[in-house]
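Hi F.,

I've been meaning to write this up properly since the lab meeting, where we talked about keeping a consistent format for the predictions we share between groups. The idea is simple: the sequence comes first, exactly as it goes in, then the C-alpha cells exactly as they come out, then a line or two of notes. No screenshots and no reformatting. I'm using this chain as the first example so we have something concrete to point to.
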Amino acid sequence: MKILSLIFHTMAAMMSFGALSAQEAFMVVEAHSGKVIQAQNSSVKRPVASLTKICTGCVATDWALATNQDLKKISAVVPESITRIGGPNPLNLQPGQSITLSDALYAALLSSDNMAAMTVADHIGRDINNRRGSTDDPVWTFVKEMNELAKTVGMRNTKFLNPHGLELPKQQGYSTAADMSKLCIYAMRRPSFAFFVRQKTRTISVGGKSYELQNTNKLVGGEGILGIKTGQTTPAGSCLATSMDKDPLIRTKPDGSKGVTPRRLIVVLLNSTEDRFTRTTNLLSTGWAAYDAWIANGALVKDREREILQIPKF
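Output, unedited:
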C-alpha cells in the first residue's frame, strides 16, 4: 500500500506540475528596488525558448569586457554544429563563413537567429578553452558559463542546455519568470548588452551581403522601452521580456534635500494566453500605477523575502 501511495502522489505531483507549466506565468518587478509588483506562477519551472539568448548575450558581452576584446573587430567562424540545429537560417550562414561577433550578437538578440547564437557560443567557448588549456566541446564550455552566471545572479530554478533555447533531444532547459526577471535586471545593468537589445533595426554584413535585422520585440521604439527579448516555441509558448524606464521621481526629504528615485520596470511573460505585446503593455501600465502608489505610500515592506526580488550587486 505504501508503494501504491507513493506512486499515486508522484503521479499527482507530475500532473500538477504539468498543469501549472501549461499556464501563463509572469513577473513585474521594479529593477532598482527589486520590488515585486505583480506575479503569477512565477516560480514554476518551464521552457523559456529564445529568452535563453539573454544569457548568451550576457556571457558574450561580459567575456568581451573581461578580456578587453572589441566585438566589432573579432571575426568568428560559423561552426559545423549549426547544421544540427535545424529550423530557419535567415542569414544563410554556412560552416566556415566569417561573421563579426557583434553582428552575430545582433542577429541572435534582435532577430533571434539560432545559428548566430551557436556561432557566438562556439567562438567564445574556444577562446575560454584555449585560455584554460582545455579540449572540451566549445559550445558546452560556453553553456557552462551561462549556468555559472545564472548561479551567480541567484537563478536557483534554471538550467541552460544550449545557447539558443530550442528544445532539442537531451537539450530541454528550463527557468522561471522570477529567475528570468533576475537575469533581465542583471542584463540591463550592462550598457554593452543594453545597447544591442534597444536597437529597433540593424544592418549587418555576412558573406558580402547586407541584411537589415528587425527587432522581434515590437514594443522597442516606444517611449521608455529599452528591449529586451522575445521567445516562442511550441513547448514554451509565446514569451516576452521587456524593460521600460520612466523619469526618476524627485522628492524633498524632511531635511530639505532632494531624493532621487530611479524607475525601471521589468516584465517577464511566459506562455502568454493572449498577444504577448498587448499583454505586456497592460502589465506595464498596471505595474507603473501600483509601483508609484507604493512609493507614494512610503515604500513599506512587510515581508522582504516575498516582496523583494534579491539580485546581487555587481
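Notes:
The first helix runs from residue 2 to 21.
Strands lie at 25-30, 36-40, 75-77, 98-100, 201-206, 209-214, 225-233, 237-252, 258-270.

If this format works for you, I'll send the rest the same way.

G.
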